[in-house]
């Protein structure tokens, strides 16, 4: 590409590349069991993001989870349908409540309106009984206000009028429309700022089904004049809940004046999230056929897709970018660095870095961390040290450097350097504590992780479940089931809210401790008891992988089917793990190709080769 991207394709590719517990009692926990990643965030392209962000105040930038040199892009299909609730959402927060084993065949007990039951791992029935509720939140651990807690001023008594977002979050999905109609009939007005607040909270908590119902209510009642960003957001929610075909039909209802590249890029992002190459290519070509602007955002989405499902096609998009004089963005370079690093092409990765600098992009701490991890995984210790030393220069001035260095030194197994960097952080923020807890956990220094967490609690008593989950993951990663169960008790007693991230930590705790049946039962129960909030994609993958390694075809098939029933689309990783289960059991997977075809999934070359080998059995 002219000055900024000239020769990108040739340089990069010289030749085409061939629960949380919703019904668990503390007593049951003690008895040995309980019931049950910067890139773009899911659902938004670089063009769509700023538009939707202005309207919804929702976080558009995403998560890049880097582990062992691998960048994992957390997209719409990997995110839960419901999310963690924070302590800041106290009027609508659902807390842990302790219950005994869940009754399967008798009438269930009713709980308080604002509380949910926590599922356990037992499946053999038993009467349902209520446990005590420990949701009271004290000012501090010792009864007094700790540093970091808020001392509220006493306000004059005024009639309480709940916010619209509180009403929406408190209402069940089935009763949402009549509740909203009654709210309007009572004389309340729907204003854009109120809508912003509602959708912000629903998206933040991954409650996409309720968000769609709320959006449809606004549309049907003609309460707002929809603009470009509103149609794009509505389409995104339809795609998340009902799939691509439903989203395509919605486009036909959108006025032609609003059928812009923003709308089609939103559809493209959802296709990419589902690894649906055929549909993504169709939408990408449609953007060009309609003479809509072809943006770097759309090209990046195709690069992201091909990086996952068809790496030999990456060069086609890079060549198109050169032809159309579309300049790469920082995200483009991140994708290329990740692709080269995963391919163990160190020279190619360094070429991308040099090109990036020549075109005015300086690698941020995220990119530097990524590169250092690729060097570490490639046993290039000296080069990794060079990157780390370059980051050390900024350690006193930049908190991102501190967090990255804590992570890198933990991977390298250097506790003294972790301690040194942590001591340099004299006034740590919440994310600094989080990075330190994870670093000590990776090193296996459990006591130091616990000390850091306790310091965090004393500094900031009102923590969200995000920080509790980090400690729970430490126990899970180190296979400390007993400590994990005691920590779950603590979460229950503290009234800590739960959600898919917490459930994921519990599943990992069970699986890493060899308790696959309990992990399976836990997932079943949180799914049944949370119709609007499903477990994470990776929670199923952790369990599917464990069954596959054992050659347990029956349970692997069960998890695979449940993954699809939950709403996650057919993807490469689940199919690979299911095939691995058959391979480890030395059993031929009859009809597997037909299943893939029915799921509109195109097998990769590697999968076809594996199927051919299994057929010979």
Automatic annotation (TrEMBL):
<feature type="domain" description="PROP1-like PPR">
    <location>
        <begin position="437"/>
        <end position="568"/>
    </location>
</feature>
<dbReference type="Pfam" id="PF13812">
    <property type="entry name" value="PPR_3"/>
</dbReference>
<dbReference type="Pfam" id="PF17177">
    <property type="entry name" value="PPR_long"/>
</dbReference>
<dbReference type="GO" id="GO:0005739">
    <property type="term" value="C:mitochondrion"/>
</dbReference>
<dbReference type="InterPro" id="IPR002885">
    <property type="entry name" value="PPR_rpt"/>
</dbReference>
<feature type="region of interest" description="Disordered">
    <location>
        <begin position="74"/>
        <end position="152"/>
    </location>
</feature>
<dbReference type="GO" id="GO:0003729">
    <property type="term" value="F:mRNA binding"/>
</dbReference>
<feature type="repeat" description="PPR">
    <location>
        <begin position="329"/>
        <end position="363"/>
    </location>
</feature>
<keyword id="KW-0809">Transit peptide</keyword>
<keyword id="KW-0677">Repeat</keyword>
<feature type="repeat" description="PPR">
    <location>
        <begin position="536"/>
        <end position="570"/>
    </location>
</feature>
<protein>
    <recommendedName>
        <fullName>PROP1-like PPR domain-containing protein</fullName>
    </recommendedName>
</protein>
<dbReference type="InterPro" id="IPR033443">
    <property type="entry name" value="PROP1-like_PPR_dom"/>
</dbReference>
<dbReference type="InterPro" id="IPR011990">
    <property type="entry name" value="TPR-like_helical_dom_sf"/>
</dbReference>
<comment type="similarity">
    <text>Belongs to the PPR family. P subfamily.</text>
</comment>
């Amino acid at each position: 590409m002219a000055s900024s991207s000239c020769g990108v394709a040739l340089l990069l590719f010289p030749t085409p590349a061939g629960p949380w517990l919703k019904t668990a009692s503390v007593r049951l926990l003690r008895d040995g069991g309980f019931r049950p990643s910067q890139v773009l965030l899911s659902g938004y392209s670089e063009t769509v993001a700023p538009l939707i962000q202005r309207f919804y105040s929702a976080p558009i930038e995403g998560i890049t989870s880097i582990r062992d040199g691998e960048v994992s892009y957390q997209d719409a299909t990997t995110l839960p349908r419901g999310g963690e609730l924070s302590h800041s959402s106290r009027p609508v927060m659902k807390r842990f409540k302790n219950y005994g084993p869940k009754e399967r065949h008798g009438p269930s007990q009713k709980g308080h309106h604002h509380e949910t039951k926590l599922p356990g791992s037992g499946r053999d029935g038993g009467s349902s009984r209520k446990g005590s509720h420990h949701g009271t939140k004290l000012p501090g651990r010792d009864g007094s206000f700790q540093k970091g807690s808020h001392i509220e001023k006493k306000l004059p008594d005024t009639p309480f009028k709940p916010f619209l977002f509180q009403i929406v979050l408190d209402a069940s999905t089935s009763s949402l429309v009549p509740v909203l109609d009654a709210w309007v009939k009572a004389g309340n007005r729907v204003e854009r700022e109120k809508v912003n607040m509602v959708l912000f909270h629903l998206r933040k908590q991954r409650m996409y089904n309720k968000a769609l119902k709320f959006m449809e209510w606004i549309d049907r009642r003609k309460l707002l004049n929809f603009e470009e960003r509103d149609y794009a957001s509505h389409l995104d929610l339809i795609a998340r809940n009902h799939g691509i075909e439903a989203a395509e039909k919605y486009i036909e209802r959108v006025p032609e004046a609003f059928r812009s590249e923003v709308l089609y890029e939103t559809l493209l992002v959802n296709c990419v999230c589902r690894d649906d190459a055929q549909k993504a290519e169709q939408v990408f070509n449609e953007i060009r056929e309609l003479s809509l602007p072809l943006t770097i955002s759309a090209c990046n989405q195709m690069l992201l897709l091909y990086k996952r499902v068809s790496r030999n096609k990456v060069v086609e998009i890079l060549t198109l970018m050169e032809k159309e004089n579309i300049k790469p963005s920082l995200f483009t370079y991140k994708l290329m660095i990740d692709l080269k690093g995963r391919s163990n092409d160190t020279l190619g990765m360094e070429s991308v870095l040099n090109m990036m600098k020549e075109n005015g992009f300086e690698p941020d701490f995220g990119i530097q961390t990524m590169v250092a991890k690729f060097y570490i995984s490639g046993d290039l210790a000296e080069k990794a040290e060079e990157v780390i030393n370059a980051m050390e220069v900024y350690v006193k001035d930049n908190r991102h450097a501190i967090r990255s260095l804590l992570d890198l030194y933990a991977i390298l197994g250097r506790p003294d350097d972790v301690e040194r960097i942590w001591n340099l952080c004299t006034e740590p923020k919440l994310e600094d504590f989080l990075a330190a807890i994870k670093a000590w956990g990776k090193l296996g220094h459990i006591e130091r992780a616990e000390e850091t967490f306790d310091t965090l609690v004393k500094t900031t008593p009102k923590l969200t479940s995000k920080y509790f989950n980090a400690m729970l993951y430490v126990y899970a990663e180190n296979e400390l089931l007993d400590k994990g169960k005691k920590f779950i008790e603590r979460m229950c007693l503290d009234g800590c809210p739960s959600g898919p991230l917490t459930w994921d930590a519990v599943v990992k705790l069970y699986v890493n401790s060899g308790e696959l049946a309990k992990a399976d039962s836990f997932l079943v129960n949180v799914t049944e008891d949370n119709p609007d909030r499903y477990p994470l994609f990776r929670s199923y993958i952790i369990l599917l992988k464990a069954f596959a390694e054992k050659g347990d075809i029956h349970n692997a098939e069960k998890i695979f089917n449940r993954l699809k029933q939950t709403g996650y689309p057919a993807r490469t990783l689940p199919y690979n793990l299911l095939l691995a289960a058959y391979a480890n059991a030395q059993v031929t997977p009859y009809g597997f190709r037909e299943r893939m075809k029915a799921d509109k999934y195109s097998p990769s070359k590697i999968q076809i080769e594996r199927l051919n080998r299994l057929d010979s059995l």
